[in-house]
Amino acid sequence: MWVELICGLVLFCLLMLYLFDDGDHLDLDTSHSNALFAVANRLEQLYYGSKVYVGLQIPDADSGSRQNIDMVLVTKGEALVISVMNISGFVSIDKNGNWVCTAGLSNKTKCLPDPTVETKRLVPILEAYLEQRGVVLPEGYLSGKVICPNPNFSAVDSDVFPPEVITYDQWTQLKPEQRSMLSGWIKGAFRSAKKEMQESLNEKLCSTLSTAPMWDRLELKGNKYILGEFMEFKGKQDDLQALINIRRSKVSRLIVQKISMFGFARSTLQVLYSPHDYRNEGAASSEWKEAMVRSSTEVVFQPNNSTKVRKYKLSSVISMSLSA
């Protein structure tokens, strides 16, 4: 009898591991990405008519590699490279400019390099990329900021943080009419520039950034996001055949919908996907194609903050965007 009980317990544990394997790593995979999209959404609320581009991978000619940029904010009069420091604890700055973070009951400390240095380094890289694509920005138009959005972030002495840093307290106090923390370096020439020129520059900048290399992204149920690289689908052969056209070279976005018939949910999902020619939001429904697959079909995805490849069931996925 004990043998049967032990075998049953082992089988139950294996079943739970299979069913909930994604959840064990979900918080780790989504924490930073969720912070990025939360910051992006609030910035677009603070700046009417602005646009935020999240998870950019900008080619750098000098290093021959792609440089990760958390986000770029484009407003009517300026553009910002923004780094998001989603850290918690008591944060101070040492004599070398490093950030010293003390967190937890054990008072463990962690030393981080000054994030403003990295953010400033990314500004000319993005400027060079934009210039290669025909978008020449006026001097000073593009600058950098570091935002600390974690509610458990506590600055030991906020006065010692450089002006490029927006601490959590400052972040929560920002209002739509308070632009000074994110602005302040716009030259008088920009203010007097013709409105038509600014609109033209803004349009070119947004058009270029919208087609720049980005991380792939998964949107999961529960308002969770994961940035990384889509690898492949896993599942039954007929489901894989139905999804065979969803490739990076052909598809920019897919949306997963659950199907119900006569009020009863089926274990089948409708996957709508659009070609790269229709990357912008608002594409007509006739431009989307569909595939019917089982809800157990999995998306194999490599999060950008993890060394391990993860599998997420399509039943937990709301949408996926693929960068060209």
Automatic annotation (TrEMBL):
Keywords: Signal. The keyword Signal applies. Residues 31-149 form the NERD domain. PROSITE patterns: NERD. Residues 1-23 form the signal peptide. Pfam families: NERD. It comes from Fraxinus pennsylvanica. The keyword Signal applies. It comes from the Eukaryota. PANTHER family: SI:ZFOS-911D5.4. The lineage of its organism: Eukaryota, Viridiplantae, Streptophyta, Embryophyta, Tracheophyta. This is NERD domain-containing protein.
